[in-house]
Amino acid sequence: MDEARELIIIGGGPAGYTAALYAARGELKPLVIEGFQWGGQLMATSDVENYPGYPEAVIGPKMMQDFRSQAERFGAEFVTDDVTSVDFSSQPFRVFVEKDEYRAEAVIVATGASARWLGSRPRAPAGARRLRLCDLRRGLLPRQSRSSWVAGGDSAFEEALFLTRFGTKVTLIHRRDDFRASQIMVNRARGNDKIELLTPYVVEEVLGDASVSGVRLRHAVSGVEREIEAQGLFVAIRARPQYEPLLGPARP
After folding, report:
1. S-S: 153 plus which of 169, 180, 192, 211, CB 3.0-4.6 Å?
2. Where are the domains of the chain?
3. Cα–Cα distance between 31 and 7 in angstroms, integer?
4. Which residues of 73-107 are buried (b: 16+ CB within 10 A; e: fewer)?
């Protein structure tokens, strides 16, 4: 590309689309390189209840489509591909998507984050690398089954409550006694007889061969171990920044 733009936005999540909206309304004609997996982590979220303008809640993908459409309405352009490298050593800055080069006087980096897995931790529990700990939250677990969530934030509580709609009994496992989740989500879980809260426990082993059959836990204080049955294991242990094309690989 010969002509440099005023602005390139790297990232197609809530931050990237919001920046695109403001920039487009300011007639900066931004180019948004949104990535193949545009929409960010909200694309894997069921009900969003705490964002203004959606009084009846909204599913994450619908919300992200609204964000994108609003930015597009004011003239933002989109490239649905991943950035492979950048050159910020001089202006105009250069952004590469494979062999395609895009240049701009300013670049906004809004690449977001990706979920961490138990198997990516330095001391991963036995079986975590052997078994793929997948997100089955769209109701793919059999009815009347049991599942476990390893986390203590809003996402885990939200999805645990979601799974109970399908008859699933959910165990929430957290390494501390207190939760990071908002109090309203904790209260809802405690008031749901299909949800069990286990604290303070850490996962020592994922049980099962081709699929999850249970988990072995260790009490974080006493060290006493116990096993619980589970047909699904879900992990929401924070996230890691996605900046590999810009600064190199993220630390584990």
Report:
1. 180
2. 5-114+241-247, 117-236
3. 7
4. ebebebbeebbeebeeeeebbbbebeeeebbbebb
Name the 3-class secondary structure at 56. coil
Cα–Cα distance, 104 to 9 (Å, whole number): 10
Q: Please give the pLDDT value at position 246.
A: 66
- Mean pLDDT score of the chain: 80
Provide the total of helices (H) and of strands (E) in the chain, helices listed first: 5, 17
- Please say whether the beta carbons of 199 and 176 come within 8 A: yes
DSSP state of 18: H
* Res 120 pLDDT > 60: no
The answer to whether 108 touches 94, Cβ cutoff 8 Å, is no
Which residue's entry shows tokens 């936005």? 9
Distances (CA, A) of 199 to 141, 150, 173: 24, 11, 6
Provide, rounded to the nearest whole percent, the portion of the chain with pLDDT above 90.
40
pTM: 0.61
| Residue 171 and residue 198 in contact, taking contact as beta carbons nearer than 8 Å | yes
The DSSP string of 64-115 is: HHHHHHHHHHTT-EEE-S---EEE-SSSSEEEEETTEEEEEEEEEE---EEE
Q: Do the Cβ atoms of 174 and 200 come closer than 8 Å? A: yes
Highest mean pLDDT among 18-22, 80-84, 121-125: 18-22
Fold of the CATH domain 5-114+241-247: FAD/NAD(P)-binding domain (3.50.50)
What is the chain's length? 252
* Residue range 117-236 in CATH 3.50.50.60: yes
